[in-house]
Amino acid sequence: MKKVLFSAFSLGLVLALGACSDDSSSSTEVEKDSGATGGYSESESIDKDAEKILEEAVKGTDYESVTCDSVSTQVVAGTNYRFQCSMKDGKKTKDVELVVFEPLPNTGKPVQLTLVVDNAGKVLFESEVEFEDDEDITDDDKKKDDDKKKSDDEKLKDDRDGQTYKTVKIGDQVWMAENLNYSEEPGEQSWCYNDSTEYCEKFGRLYTWVAAVGKTEDECGYDEDCDLPSGNIRGVCPEGWHMPTDKDWQTLFASVGGKDKAGIALKSSSGWYNDGNGKDSFGFTALPAGNREDGGYFRLIEDYAFFWSATQYESVSSYAYYMSLYNGFDEGTLDLNEKYRGYSVRCIKD
Question: How far apart are CA 217 and CA 152, in angstroms?
């Protein structure tokens, strides 16, 4: 199971490569001493093993295309690879070397380092990927990874407006992995944070409970006892999807290790105030979208994520259930609040 530690960036950096080879010098140039002990072999054609290494390395680069025609190798504590390549960068094509320093075993969490180096030895690109030791990877971890990989290829297209959303399978449920951003009547019962479309593009819209369940104020407003039909409530969701009930949220909590761990498991790994991020262990990627209050003001962005359920409170018709995640807290919460508040929506597949 691999975890990207640093996003790719195109800079010349001073790199300490001692963790990946026996050369402890720091330089923006990659040594070319073919033939010496521990040095690189003569270039040869790329075999199947090297091809697999190359495929993984290229995925992390920010170049449009890459073509490699030969490779040389170096055996230290592991096998390192130097591919001779040409890479397309905008309208230009550059001759470069793509160098992969393999993870070292028995180092706790070994790191694979990938570099792109030009003809002058200058590092154009660097990325690091951290691998957990095999003994630390459980069957549950592998299943989570498999589910995330499958969900990466599944997109939900909303035929009403053509928008697409990532989805993720967690346990037996399939969820939207992004907040819904659909509205027939913008500004009526759903809003962008601070009434700015840039927030909708990132965080989705904030809906009243009435809008979320697809009803009018006369039918299901603040003081109205909403008579929803039994079964799935599609509400504002795309066709084939529906609003989660309070029980659906409870099932999600159970699938990610329980209510006490739901926050750390479901929150996005970035974007939360004061580094109150989660681990996003399952790909749900809950963002701190904040909310809209009845008076028309917006608050708590980067601190809270609120998601409506389709379940009205039995005792007080002006309240409905919602799920929330809070900055810096590991747990998830299922609670009640007034229907007029503007919260996010995550749909679940029928």
Answer: 38
pLDDT over 70 at 7, yes or no: no
Residues 165-182: what's their mean pLDDT?
Answer: 97
**What is the pTM assigned to this prediction?**
0.59
Annotate the chain with three-state secondary structure: CEEECCCCECCCCCEECCCCCCCCCEECCCCCCCCCCCCCCCCECCCHHHHHHHHHHHHCCCCCEEEEEEEEEEECCCEEEEEEEEEEECCEEEEEEEEEECCCCCCCCCEEEEEEECCCCCEEEEEEEEECCHHHCCHHHHHHHHHHHHHHCCEEECCCCCCEEEEEEECCEEEECCCCCCCCCCCCCEECHHHCHHHHHHHCCEECHHHHCCCCHHHHCCCCCCCCCCCCECCCCCCCEEECCHHHHHHHHHHCCCHHHHHHHHECCCCCHHHCCCCCCCCCCECCCCEECCCCCEECCCCEEEEEEEEECCCCCCEEEEEEEECCCCCEEEEEEECCCEEECCCEEC
CA separation for the pair 236, 307 (Å, rounded): 13
